[in-house]
C-alpha cells in the first residue's frame, strides 16, 4: 500500500488537479502553480461506472460511512473546519425527527456514478516538487493528484407501514428487496426498460444530488427512477460535461513540509534583517553626505560620493531577493552558498561597518583640524602648481600624510551590480591611528597654524592650505611648508604658537627668529604714554630662502610699520 497516496471523498466540493490539501483541517487550497492542460491526463468512461448502497434499519451515526466519509473527514465536519451547511448531503446527515416517522418505512439508496477521471502527469509533479513545497509553505500537506468526476445521489424511499400485515422493519426489508431487484434491471451494462413493480407504487421519493443544477425534489418512485436513468446515461458528445462534480480525490503527500516551513521562516527573518540594514545604510549615508566637514576632506568626499552613486544599482540587485527562489536552492543543498549571496547579508554588514568607519575617521580629522573651517585641503603637487593670482606671493602649507589603499567593499559592490569601472582608492591618514598623544600634538600644531592664518588673513600675499603628501614623503605630519610662487620652496616656518614640526622643542622655536614671517596686527589704539614698540628682524642669512623671507617682511614694514608690535620680543 502506497501511504503517500490516499483516496478521500471530495464531498462535492470544488477541487482541481494540482490543488493543495491540508490534512489537518481537510481544507482545499488553491495553488499558485499553474498546471498546463497537456500535463493533465483525462480518461472518459464510455460506460458509466455505478455504485449503489442501501441504508435502512441502522443508527444515524453510520450515515457518513455510507457516503464514503472517513473518520477524519467526519471529525473535521463535526469540529466545523469543514462547513456542513455547504455540503450537498447536509439534509441527509442532519435529520430532524417528525411525528409520523414511526409509522413510515424508510429505505435510503446511495448512487455514485463515475464519468471522468483527471490525473496529474507524474513527470510534471516531479519537476515541480520543490515549487509545491515552497507554494504550500507548511500550510498544506498534500497535493491533489487525481480527481474523479461524476454524480452522487441520495434517494430516500418512504411509504406508510401496514400494521395489519407487517412491522416497520419488515416493511423496510420488503422495499429493499423489491427496489434492489428493480435497479439491477434498469441500471447497468445490461439494463432493460421495464415498468416499476406494483409493490413500489405507494413509495414516494426525495432525491438529494451533488449536481449543482438539481434541487432536492420529492416525487413518485417512477419519476425518480426516470431521473436516475437520465443522469446515469447522460451523453457528453466527446466534451467533458460541466455538470459533473468531484466525487473523490487522490491526494499525494508533499514531503519535507516541516523543513520547508522552518526554512521559509528563517529566510523571511533574514529578509527583514536585510531591509533593516538597508534602511540604516540609507539613513546613515544621507546623514554622512551632509557632514559639515566632508567637503573639507576631498579624499573622503570622493569615497563617499562614489559610495552614494553605487547605492541605487546595489539596491536594485539586493532587493531582488526572492524567498521562494532561494528556498528552492536551499532545499537542493545549496544553503550555505546561496543564503550568503542571495542579498549578501555579509555585504550589508560590511557596508554598515564601512560607513561607521568613515564617519569615525571624518570626525577624527574634524576634531584634529577644528578652529578653522575655511582652510582648504589639497594634494601637495596641486598646491605647488597652483597658478598665482594677483597679490598671492606665497603659500603656507600644513602637511598631513595620507595613503591610498584598495577598497574591497567598493569592488564587491561593483561585482554585484556588474559595473567594471575603476573605483576610487580609500584614503588612510596614519595620524588618526597614531594614538591620542600624537593626535593631540598634531592638533595643537594645527591650532597654532590656524592662529597664524587668522592673524595674517589681511595680508593679500599669504595663502594658507592643508597639503596632503604620501606616506613615503620625508615630511612629517604637522610640518609647515612655505612655498613662494612661482613654486619656490622656503624653509619650513611657523609662529611661536605653532611648531615647524611637532618634534621640535620650544627652545629651538625661540632660537629661529629668522623664521618669523607674519605677526599679529595690532588694531587697537596704542596708549599715548606707553613706549612705542619697534619691530626688529634678525640679520640676513646667506641662505637664499631666508633672504626672500627677509625681503618680504621688510616690504611689509615699509608699507605700514606702525601697525606692527613686537609681541614676541624678536
How many helices does DSSP assign?
16
State the shape. Answer: rod-shaped
N-end to C-end Cα span: 110 Å
Q: β content, as a range?
A: 15-25%
Largest beta-sheet details: 9 strands, antiparallel
Low-confidence stretches: 334-338, 493-570
Protein name: Denn domain-containing protein
Organism: Daphnia magna
InterPro entries: Cytolytic_pore-forming_toxin
Describe the structure.
By secondary structure, the protein is an alpha+beta fold. The protein is 38% helix and 20% strand. The chain is built from 16 helices and 15 strands. The strands form 2 sheets. Strands 1, 2, 3, 4, 5, 6, 7, 8 and 9 form a 9-stranded antiparallel β-sheet that branches. α5 crosses α10. It is rod-shaped and about 140 Å long. 28% of the residues are buried. It comes from Daphnia magna. This is Denn domain-containing protein.
Keywords:
single chain; 570 residues; alpha+beta; 9-stranded antiparallel β-sheet; 6-stranded mixed β-sheet; 16 helices; 38% helix; rod-shaped; Cytolytic_pore-forming_toxin; Denn domain-containing protein
Q: Brief overview, please?
A:
InterPro entries: Cytolytic_pore-forming_toxin. The chain has 570 residues and is of the alpha+beta class.
Present the secondary structure layout:
Blueprint: E1 5-9, E2 20-22, E3 27-29, E4 40-55, H1 63-66, H2 71-79, H3 90-93, E5 104-120, H4 122-127, H5 129-136, E6 142-160, H6 168-186, E7 204-209, E8 217-220, H7 221-232, E9 245-253, H8 257-289, H9 298-318, H10 323-342, H11 345-368, E10 377-379, H12 380-384, E11 394-405, H13 408-417, E12 426-428, H14 436-455, E13 464-470, E14 480-484, E15 488-490, H15 506-511, H16 544-559
Parallel strand pairs: 10-13, 11-13
Antiparallel strand pairs: 1-9, 2-3, 2-6, 4-5, 5-6, 6-7, 6-9, 7-8, 11-12, 11-14, 14-15
Amino acid at each position: 500500500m502506497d501511504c503517500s497516496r490516499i483516496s478521500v471523498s471530495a464531498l462535492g466540493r470544488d477541487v482541481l488537479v494540482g490543488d493543495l490539501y491540508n490534512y489537518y483541517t481537510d481544507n482545499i487550497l488553491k495553488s499558485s502553480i499553474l498546471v498546463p492542460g497537456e500535463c493533465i491526463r483525462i480518461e472518459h468512461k464510455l460506460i458509466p461506472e455505478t455504485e449503489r448502497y442501501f441504508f435502512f434499519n441502522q443508527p444515524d451515526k453510520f450515515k457518513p460511512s455510507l457516503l464514503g466519509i472517513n473518520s477524519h473527514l467526519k471529525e473535521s465536519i463535526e469540529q466545523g473546519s469543514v462547513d456542513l451547511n455547504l455540503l450537498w448531503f447536509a439534509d441527509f446527515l442532519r435529520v430532524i425527527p417528525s411525528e409520523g416517522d414511526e409509522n413510515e418505512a424508510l429505505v435510503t439508496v446511495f448512487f455514485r456514478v463515475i464519468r471522468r477521471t483527471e490525473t496529474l502527469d507524474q513527470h510534471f509533479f516531479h519537476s515541480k516538487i520543490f515549487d509545491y513545497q515552497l507554494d504550500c509553505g507548511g500550510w498544506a500537506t498534500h497535493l491533489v493528484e487525481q480527481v474523479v468526476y461524476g454524480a452522487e445521489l441520495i434517494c430516500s424511499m418512504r411509504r406508510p407501514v401496514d400494521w395489519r400485515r407487517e412491522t416497520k422493519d419488515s416493511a423496510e426489508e420488503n422495499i429493499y428487496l423489491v427496489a434492489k431487484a428493480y435497479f439491477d434491471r434498469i441500471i447497468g451494462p445490461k439494463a432493460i426498460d421495464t415498468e416499476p413493480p406494483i409493490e413500489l407504487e405507494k413509495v414516494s421519493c426525495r432525491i438529494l444530488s451533488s449536481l449543482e443544477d438539481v434541487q432536492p425534489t420529492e416525487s413518485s418512485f417512477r419519476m425518480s427512477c426516470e431521473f436516475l436513468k437520465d443522469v446515469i446515461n447522460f451523453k457528453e458528445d466527446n466534451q467533458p460535461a460541466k455538470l459533473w462534480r468531484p466525487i473523490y480525490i487522490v491526494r499525494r503527500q508533499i514531503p519535507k513540509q516541516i523543513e520547508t516551513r522552518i526554512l521559509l521562516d528563517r529566510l523571511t527573518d533574514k529578509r527583514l534583517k536585510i531591509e533593516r540594514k538597508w534602511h540604516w545604510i540609507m539613513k546613515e549615508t544621507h546623514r554622512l553626505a551632509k557632514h559639515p566637514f566632508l567637503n573639507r576632506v576631498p579624499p573622503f568626499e570622493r569615497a563617499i560620493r562614489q559610495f552614494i552613486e553605487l547605492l541605487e544599482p546595489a539596491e536594485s540587485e539586493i532587493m531582488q531577493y526572492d524567498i521562494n527562489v532561494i528556498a528552492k536552492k536551499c532545499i537542493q543543498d545549496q544553503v550555505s552558498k546561496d543564503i550568503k549571496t542571495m542579498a549578501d547579508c555579509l555585504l550589508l554588514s560590511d557596508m554598515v561597518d564601512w560607513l561607521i568607519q568613515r564617519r569615525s575617521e571624518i570626525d577624527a580629522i574634524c576634531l584634529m583640524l577644528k578652529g578653522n573651517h575655511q582652510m582648504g585641503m589639497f594634494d601637495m603637487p596641486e598646491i605647488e602648481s597652483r597658478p598665482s593670482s594677483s597679490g598671492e606671493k606665497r603659500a603656507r602649507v600644513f602637511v598631513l600624510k595620507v595613503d591610498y589603499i584598495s577598497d574591497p567593499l567598493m569592488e564587491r559592490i561593483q561585482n554585484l551590480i556588474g559595473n567594471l569601472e575603476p573605483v576610487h582608492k580609500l584614503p588612510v591618514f596614519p595620524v588618526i591611528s597614531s594614538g591620542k598623544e600624537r593626535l593631540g600634538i598634531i592638533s595643537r600644531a594645527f591650532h597654532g597654524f590656524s592662529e597664524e592664518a587668522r592673524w595674517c588673513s589681511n595680508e593679500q600675499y599669504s595663502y594658507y592650505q592643508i597639503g596632503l603628501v604620501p606616506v613615503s614623503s620625508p615630511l612629517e605630519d604637522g610640518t609647515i611648508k612655505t612655498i613662494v610662487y612661482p613654486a619656490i620652496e622656503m624653509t619650513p616656518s611657523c609662529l611661536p604658537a605653532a611648531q615647524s614640526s611637532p618634534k621640535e622643542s620650544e627652545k629651538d622655536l625661540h632660537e629661529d627668529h629668522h623664521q618669523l614671517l607674519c605677526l599679529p596686527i595690532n588694531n587697537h589704539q596704542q596708549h599715548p604714554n606707553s613706549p612705542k614698540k619697534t619691530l626688529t628682524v634678525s640679520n640676513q642669512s646667506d641662505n637664499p630662502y631666508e633672504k626672500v623671507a627677509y625681503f618680504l617682511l621688510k616690504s611689509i614694514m615699509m608699507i605700514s610699520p606702525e601697525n606692527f608690535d613686537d609681541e614676541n620680543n624678536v
